[in-house]
Structure to design on (186 residues):
């Protein structure tokens, strides 16, 4: 089984942004309101777009006359299964990260800063799991790695659903992130 992992150079800025964005956005909302927060995010997106335009080399279009490669049925099934897994994985990761702050505020009755911290713990644990995956991927069986991660994610999400104390919930958030982390780079 071939394993592709994101390099630390590629993954670190993305994960660090996800870790630090929730508390920064909460403080921006408190300081200046929604307009200031949205303006800052829009400005960052504009800067990122300009940087990508200037720094990323343009791709050369493939020749239209080249015959497309033939794919066997076994490879086609593997690609469909992997696509289905990634579809579900991305849905769970994004759904949990989008649902977590609202759930924290409504069910756990915590302040918005604590809800933002729960989201930061989630993304920090994903970052830790992805770093561990990138460093250990060549030595571990990817199938076992992913299945262990999915089991940990289920335990973490169950802890979120049934946990009551903030510390228990934060542990559940961390376990869910650690479980989901290896899925994408593997």
């Amino acid at each position: 089984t071939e394993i592709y992992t994101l390099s630390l150079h590629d993954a670190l800025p993305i994960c660090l942004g996800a870790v630090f964005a929730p508390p920064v956005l909460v403080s921006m909302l408190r300081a200046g309101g929604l307009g200031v927060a949205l303006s800052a995010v829009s400005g960052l997106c504009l800067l990122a777009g300009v940087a990508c335009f200037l720094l990323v080399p343009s791709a050369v279009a493939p020749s239209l006359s080249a015959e497309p490669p033939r794919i066997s049925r076994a490879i086609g099934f593997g690609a469909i299964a992997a696509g289905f897994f990634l579809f579900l994985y991305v849905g769970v990761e994004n759904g949990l990260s989008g649902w977590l702050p609202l759930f924290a505020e409504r069910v756990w009755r915590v302040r918005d800063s604590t809800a933002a911290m729960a989201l930061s713990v989630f993304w920090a644990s994903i970052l830790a799991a992805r770093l561990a995956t990138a460093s250990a991927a060549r030595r571990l069986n990817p199938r076992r790695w992913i299945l262990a991660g999915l089991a940990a994610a289920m335990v973490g999400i169950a802890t979120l659903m049934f946990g009551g104390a903030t510390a228990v919930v934060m542990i559940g958030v961390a376990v869910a992130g650690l479980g989901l982390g290896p899925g994408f780079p593997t």
